[in-house]
Design brief:
The chain has two helices and no strands. It is mainly alpha-helical. It is elongated, with a radius of gyration of 15 Å.
Length: 44
């Protein structure tokens, strides 16, 4: 929790507060696509 909080603080100083949100959203989106691809691959 503390490490992620420190990372978030670094993002806050680096740029706008919406930057970490976009980064997390992109990571989530990529993970979702990877999961769907692996499930589709197993289904075949």
């Amino acid at each position: 929790m503390n490490a992620s909080q420190r990372l978030f603080d670094r993002f806050e100083k680096a740029g706008p507060s919406w930057l970490p949100i976009i980064v997390l959203s992109l990571i989530g989106l990529i993970a979702t696509i990877a999961c769907v691809h692996s499930i589709a691959g197993l289904g075949e």
